[in-house]
Amino acid sequence: MRLTRRSRWQGVKRYAAVTLPVLFLAACATQEPTTSGTQNTASAGKPTLAPKPAVPAVTPQQAELKSLVALQDRLYDVAAPLLVNNAVLCRNNARNLLGFTAKTKFSYTAEFIDAATSLGLTDQLQVTGVLAGSGAAKVGLQRGDLLVAIQDKPVPTGADAERQTALMLGPLVNGRNNIKVTIARNGSNQTLNVPLTRACAFGIELGNTDNVISYADGRRVLISAGMMKFVRSDDELAYVIAKEMAHNTLTHPARQRLTATLSGVIDNLVRLRPDTAPLSGAAGVKPYPQQLDAAADKLALYMVARAGYKVDDASAFWQRLATQYPVTVLNGYTAIHPATTYRIAAIEQAVSDIQAKQASGSTVLP
Q1: Strand 146-150 vs strand 153-154: parallel, antiparallel, or unpaired?
Q2: Terminal CA-to-CA distance of the chain, rounded, Å?
Q3: N or C terminus of the chain with fewer C-beta within 10 Å?
């Protein structure tokens, strides 16, 4: 029920791991001070106003969770068109997806359960995001809808609801065009026949590090919190997500014999407290050869264009990233993708080809 059909409920718990600035909002009284036993003559005869209720203080966990959810929402929102519009380019990685995410208060690690409750999550699965362009979006599924039943079978509740529901859904997405989902909204139930959406079935992960980096392990894409802060626009974030999707599509992690290493890196970075020791170096990840990297750049730009993002500034973005985080920064992006000059030439050629196809109305395919 995340962006992919495959169960990723363990990862949802780990998503609460990103360390973000904590904001404290102090509650304050609005009542004017008075002197005991006296009354100001200017207010004589006027009714005494009751003090306004104090605004509850935001706990560190609530502030951190809100910031985390905001980062996740942006990452999912930018990734959605890339996933939905590029099934034809994802080769063997395209699957039928439900097209929405759902969580309970138990979707987060123990220290965030109370914070999740304050944000409206309970022990019942609640829709927390709908993939733009998906069948779920087209039939009107909304954030905040509670999942009641799937194919007339009650949806599990409680601490294990996500895993059990994933097991329930797994067999249903093959051989069907839609799935019957009963939801509760505004106190009443309604049934939606959710069309399955053919899309790239890559998991999209948010990494718990300020290092400006991204990874792909063949089935997942990880974008670090540091990279999220570095990009200046949704177009730039789309470049990074699509580049890792392209590496997966072209089986580059396997060809580099890095699948296990990259999976370990991603597993580490989505934890609540990742091991920071590997982050001081390259974490065992070998640099990509220039030919593989340029091939991923080309495919990524076609994915970006097909998703409706602009490709015009791709070259400037990658040059800026390489300048600010050069190859000497071992835990940065350029250390793993060092052939910047070679890549830029390939990127500019791909942009030119894409723009020519867009101008002529031709199908945007490599």
Answers
A1: antiparallel
A2: 31
A3: C
